[in-house]
Design a protein that fits this description.
The complex is a heterodimer of chains A (393) and B (190). Chain A has 393 residues and is of the alpha/beta class. Chain A folds into two domains: 245 residues, Thiamin diphosphate (ThDP)-binding fold, Pyr/PP domains (Rossmann fold, 3-Layer(aba) Sandwich), CATH 3.40.50.970; 136 residues, Rossmann fold (3-Layer(aba) Sandwich). Chain A has 13 helices and 15 strands. In chain A, the strands form three sheets. A seven-stranded mixed sheet of chain A has the order 3-2-4-5-7-6-12, sandwiched between helices. A six-stranded mixed sheet of chain A has the order 9-11-10-13-14-15, sandwiched between helices. In chain A, helix 2 links the parallel strand 2 and strand 3. The model of chain A has no long low-confidence stretch (mean pLDDT 97). Chain B is α/β, with parallel strands linked by helices. Chain B has a single domain, classed as Pyruvate-ferredoxin oxidoreductase, PFOR, domain III (Pyruvate-ferredoxin Oxidoreductase, domain 3, 3-Layer(aba) Sandwich). Chain B is built from six helices and seven strands; from the N terminus they run E-H-E-E-E-E-H-E-H-H-H-H-E. Chain B has a seven-stranded mixed sheet with strand order 2-3-1-4-5-6-7, with helices on both faces. In chain B, helix 1 crosses helix 4, helix 1 crosses helix 5 and helix 3 runs antiparallel to helix 6. The radius of gyration of chain B is 15 Å and the shape is globular. Classes of the chains: A alpha/beta (393), B alpha/beta (190). Chains A and B meet through strand 1, strand 8 and helix 10 of A and helix 1 and strand 2 of B.
Amino acid sequence: MARIEALTGDEVAAEAMRQINPDVVAAYPITPQTEIVQNFSQFVADGKVDTEMIRVESEHSAMSACVGAASAGARAMTATSANGLALMWEILYIAASYRLPIVMSVVNRALSGPINIHCDHSDSMGARDSGWIQIYSENCQEIYDNLIQAVKIGENKKLLLPVMVCFDGFIISHGTERVELLEDEVVRKFIGEFKPDYPLLDVDHPLTYGPLDLFDYYFEHKRQQIEAIDKAPDIIEQVGRDYGRISGRTYGLLEEFNLEKSDLVIIVTGSTAGTAKATILELKEQGIDVGILKIRVFRPFPYQQIKEALKGKVAVAVMDRSASFGALGGPIFTEVRSALYEEDKKPLVVNYIYGLGGRETTVEHIKKVAHDLLNIKKTGKVENLVNYLGVRE
Amino acid sequence: MKKVIEIRWHARAGQGAKTAALLLAGAALKEDKYIQGFPEYGPEREGAPIKAFTRISDVPILIHCDVANPDAVVVLDSTLLETANVTEGLPEEGILLVNTDEEPKKIRELLKLNHGKVYTVDATGISLEILGKNLPNMPMLGALIKAVPVLSLDTVLKGVREKFGKKFSSKIIDGNISAIKRAYEEVKSE
């Protein structure tokens, strides 16, 4: 029987970790760390998990310890946020290139400076080329569901890739919501045991992790890594269907909401997807129909599925909660636009940068985007390709 | 009652508004509701004005932004009446509940408020008398559910016992329960 509880995003992430019962958790225990690690440490202290908890002196060391543990054959997890993720940078690439299925919660918060501790996606968006799979969560329930699926996705033998489960700082991490939790045994049966093919501690089959790899083979290894993450969409969808069987909640790469009803679409990810859905329901009562396409998985970027979903659409607004300085719009915008390039009949695409540093994004903001889309449809023109929602200028 | 009840809490950091906002949300699970409880984090220093929010609903809650048009506003510290815009977005039928020993009429005059319904309760007085310190959050919770019967008193008391049971002695819990009940009885309306 499923349990229903009131938990914050941080609490539910720790609860998922308790059920996953990883062999090793290495984490930096203070700011910008979140309560995830504090709550999980309590489980360790209370003997509720078998995990070896390693408290390290920096996030760089946290990820390094996870790399060491996962190479040895352990199921390793960690959690971080904002500048903590930035400090892991170097080792993120190493985790992915060694093909180590580490699972990490990333509480999305702004990167300084100026100093800011609130939500935006600039931390994980900056890590988009590190080789990690990135799954974004809309609410507390999705954090839980995504973390459990992430273990099974990353450890799939065709992938063997690390996975970030991202969710919005404060808005979700510190907000209490109703969540439905599975039984411990159901979770453990679903994720199964981690049996790595090439553990470093298998002394009968000695091998080397991380040797020098220059112009002779480095390129081939990168080519293989690209090949691996390109296989991820099918695996993520398969795991999403399997998870649906045990939980009643099925997941894909994208989520469509009212999409068939309209030729106008808002593309959004994270907690604002919820606000957008609520707004769309309100607009529906006034006879205005706009569809929502939520990006759940940003890496690998589901360009095929996005192309399919946007077939026949007239105007699309892409919402980015991060800036890519000097680029033509935010990271989601540039990739959505690129995905549509070969299409004969393309929708008009417009970008909204929003919510940087925790700037509140309201129903009124989403209504503005919806009305802009109506106007673009009417005039057939996009006035400003890149717009800034809720900023003073 | 409406499908979704939205509450905005105004307080100073350290007065327990976040605890109350989240506790009310958590207790509502016992009545099979959908919930949200979240604080607005500013600079983390005691005494700074803060807001917290609670949503209680019969249907799943999708929205993830602050409450703009609260069904009820709870003010834990009356010094905020003149500095924070506590009546912002308060609808025609909205409820304003203030921790003060003044009558509701006085608060209405002070705020030059022409709409809504004002409630007052001396949560600080109750807290000082029963708990020996100024912790107005639990009595304000008691007064709130009298003014806005979104949950039964019994449900809230059970929620308090569960939430505090792991952390505090039975003496402290019993004190808080008495403070909630007392405020529930003593809250004044116009």
